Amino acid sequence: MLLDNFPRKIRQEAQLWRDEGIISSSQYEQLANRYQFNNLEAATRDRFVMIVIGIGGILLVLGVITFVAANWQSWTREVRFILMMSLFLSTAITGFYTWRQPALSKAEGKKPQRSKRLLGEALLILSAFILGANILLMAQTFNIVGSSSELFLAWGFGVLIMAYSLSLNSLGILAIVLIQIGYWSGLGDWWYTSNDLTWARLLVRHMPLVSWLLFVPLAYICRSRWIFGLAAFAFTTSLQFNLNPLQVLTYSDIAPWVASFAFALPPALLWSYDDLLFPTVNYRLFQPLARSLALVCFGFVFYILSFRWQWQFPDYGYTLPTTNSNILRTLPIIDLGILSGLAVLQWLFLLRQRSNPPRREVIFTIALVSAFIGITALVPFWHQAVSRISELGIFVFNVLLAILAWGLIQEGIKLNDRRSFWGGMLLLTLQVVSRVLEYDTDLLFKSLVFVMCGSALISAGLWFERRQPAASKSSGKA
Questions:
Q1: d(Cα 344, Cα 265) in Å, to the nearest integer?
Q2: Which of 47, 230, 337, 404 has a Cα-to-Cα distance from 64 of 20 to 30 A?
């Protein structure tokens, strides 16, 4: 509403300036053309029409649902199927043509109506929800037995096809959310039961690869940073929970490379990511976001592995679940092989792009990130395969966490970037507080540390924020 009210305020002020002689009539006309004063009433009318149509559509859908519920038991299976498919197709087709009409009007030189595009997108989202209801009702009608994981996965992939076909950001986000719900609901069945492998469990098992290969191209089709971020999140979390590296780290007789791949692969894949790897892409749209997410992965891994309990043996008598060992012997090798090969390809592409003499800062950053990845992969492998290095592992990852936090602080100060500065400050403060709480220290010492951390955080924050206007003024004078 604030954005909608802004042109009205501009129009009122511009009329007042014109009446007072501050601006001329020609300048007023320029402002009117720029902010489209003449279209404000039409936009308001379209908005209210869209609201009325939306409320009426909701009531219409509720009426149809009530009618179907009242007569559902008396209808045959064929009538149910035809009715539900007709409802889905009519909603989807109506939404498609309503959503597409503004684009066609613009191509013909007519004024596009934004309200119709929003209404069409709303109808398409409604058709996506009707698709899920159709899957559930048809499964009940034809006595198809399935789990909730299969329902959400089938629903999510159906919406994913719609998102690819229409290049709609909202449908893409909905598809990823539905597939993730299906993944999380099916993860327990895949991990703790020994039933036959179904298509849903196969998808759950290979969700890291599915997330990367299906969601990342969708982000380019929709040009959505949200979809790319959700794709990276789905890939990283599914890889961690499929491999379960924190539990595997405490066992020496289970594939020592598992934890190394799980910890090092996500930041290695994200930091080396380059949009130019796609043949049809000639711009870097998601590379900055991917590198920011890689730093988040580094911070999370370093922080988790800085705790001593992560490196200790489990208590006596603790055993893995009955099917856990079998699963670990049949790990998703295909996922790790393809994604690791993609990471190697990206790093080779990155080094080839840096063939020209780069700046010293770029060389240092690449070397530092490479060292992060190498140490993250080497230390857990050595701990499992060669000899137990619990104390050394704790020390190494605490040092890496401190280096990462300090580097973010320095980057924030150098570039006047609040996110980097505050991220580094909070990461450093979290490390100090966690170490104080983790180890058995005196309450007086804890109190002193909390006071010092709070004072340092406030002082550093005030200094950084006071520095911002000065930096902007100096750059403006230059």
A1: 10
A2: 47
Residue pointed to by tokens 């395969």: 385
CA-CA distance, 375 to 264, in Å (whole number)?
A: 9
Number of domains in the chain: 3
Are residues 212 and 358 both part of a single domain?
A: yes
Task: Say if residue 351 is in the same domain as residue 475.
Answer: no
From residue 403, alpha-carbon distances to 194, 368, 375, 434 in Å are 44, 10, 13, 16
| 432, 436, 442, 455 from 439: Cα distances, Å | 11, 6, 10, 22
pLDDT value at residue 472: 46
- Burial status of residue 264 (CB atoms within 10 A of its CB: 0-12, 13-18, 19 or more): buried
Report the C-alpha gap between 341 and 402 in whole angstroms: 30
Residue-range definition of the domain harbouring residue 256: 206-388
With contact defined as beta carbons under 8 Å apart, do 220 and 278 qualify?
yes
Longest alpha-carbon distance in the chain = 88
229 shares its domain with 300: yes
Rounded average pLDDT per 10-residue block, the chain, 478 residues: 59 78 78 69 66 74 74 76 85 86 66 72 87 82 77 93 92 94 84 68 89 93 92 93 77 70 92 83 84 93 89 54 48 80 89 65 83 92 83 91 92 87 90 86 84 88 76 43
In a domain, 240, yes or no: yes
Residues 35 and 7 sit within 8 Å (Cβ to Cβ):
yes
454 with 309, same domain: the answer is no
Same domain for 384 and 418?
A: no
List strand residue ranges (DSSP E) for 104-259, in order. Answer: none
Q: Are residues 311 and 434 in the same domain?
A: no
In a domain, 141, yes or no: no
Q: Is the separation of the CB atoms in 170 and 121 below 8 Å?
A: yes
Residue 331 and residue 190: Cα distance in Å, rounded?
12
Residues 416 and 360 occupy one common structural domain: no
d(Cα 153, Cα 242) in Å, to the nearest integer? 17
Kindly give, in sequence order, each residue whose CB lies less than 8 Å from that of residue 258, ignoring residues fewer than 6 positions away: 243, 245, 248, 328, 331
